[in-house]
Design a protein that fits this description.
Structural class: alpha/beta
CATH class of the largest domain: Alpha Beta
Oligomer: single chain
CATH architecture of the largest domain: 3-Layer(aba) Sandwich
CATH superfamily of the largest domain: Formyl transferase, N-terminal domain
Strand order of the largest sheet: 3-2-1-4-5-7-8
Number of helices: 7
Strand content: 25-35%
Order of helices and strands: EHEHEHEHEEHEEHEHEEEEEEE
Largest sheet: 7 strands, mixed
Length: 300
């Protein structure tokens, strides 16, 4: 069986290798050029393709007549998309004889759309996962092939959850591949009423809501910490970025807005709902905050 693969990021690397390991003839890989302004903390699909001697292209737009002609020339049985960042339009999806399939980083139909892992953590979910589904012109809309859940522990950050989802994606593809190749895979329609669509996130979306409760603040911080831009507040002393917190029970004082302060040799973030977070890492204008010298900072 012959496939064309659109892929990027760690999920792209592991799923590409799963296809190769499963005996699929990957005839063409389409990926992205790395953006020099982006923090590239993930593995390279392009490098894996070159290691295996697979032709690879990096178009800015995959939906051009030139790219379509290259895909059609391969005469693929399958088209796969693994964390590729552009939507593929109908002409590309109609190329493969046996279908087009996407790997999505959530338990569809929940968290359709962009950056599903970050959104799941922001909303305090206790699990997420990886889903292989049929591609159509609507994002994350097609019938399900298989999915696998992974836990989100209360203090897991997005990087840690992404590592779990990457393994789940590889396992889902590996166990689904034999049935797909044999033409025996069973598809299940999504009940789209059981989930919603979420858009992409920008660094500016990391602004902390000073009126949020402690649980929401904790989820926000761990969803946006390294390698992402971080949860921040612009205060009198500059830009405060909170990188890591732990849930720490409550405090008795009623507050109008969240505040960060030093107490007993540690940093604490007190929320308006009476909850308290222990702050393990924070910076002010790029310099690490020292509990010994940090004054009370109000997040207004």
């Amino acid at each position: 069986m012959k496939a064309v693969v659109f892929a990027y990021h760690n999920v792209g690397v592991r799923c590409l290798r799963a296809l190769i390991g499963g005996g699929v003839d990957v005839a063409l890989v389409v990926t992205h050029r790395d953006n020099p302004n982006e923090n590239i903390w993930f593995a390279s699909v392009e490098q894996v393709a070159r290691d295996y001697g697979i032709p690879v292209i990096t178009p800015d737009d995959p939906n051009t007549p030139e790219v379509l002609a290259q895909v059609q020339a391969v005469r693929p049985d399958f088209l796969f998309s693994f964390y590729y960042r552009h939507m593929l339009k109908a002409p590309l999806l109609e190329c493969p004889a046996r279908g087009a399939f996407n790997m999505h980083g959530s338990l569809l139909p929940k968290y359709r759309g962009r950056v599903p892992i970050n959104w799941a953590i922001i909303h305090g979910e206790t699990e997420t996962g990886a889903t292989l589904h049929v591609m159509n012109v609507k994002p994350d809309n097609g019938p399900l092939v298989d999915q696998m859940a992974v836990p989100i522990l209360p203090d897991d950050n997005a990087d840690e959850v992404f590592a779990k989802v990457t393994v789940a994606a590889e396992m889902v593809l590996a166990r689904s591949l034999p049935a797909l190749l044999a033409g025996k895979a069973e598809f299940r329609q999504q009940d789209l009423s059981q989930g919603g669509y979420f858009g992409g996130r920008k660094p500016e979306d990391g602004r902390i809501d000073p009126q949020a409760g402690a649980a929401d603040l904790h989820n926000f911080v761990r969803a946006l910490t390294h390698p992402f831009p971080g949860a921040f507040a612009d205060i009198d002393g500059g830009r405060l970025v909170i990188w890591k917190t732990l849930r720490a029970g409550g405090h008795s004082q009623q507050l109008q807005t969240a505040r960060l302060h030093s107490e007993n040799g540690a940093l604490w973030l007190d929320a308006v709902d009476g909850g308290r977070l222990k702050v393990l890492s924070a910076t002010l204008d790029g310099a690490a905050l020292d509990p010994a010298t940090t004054q009370t900072l109000t997040l207004a």
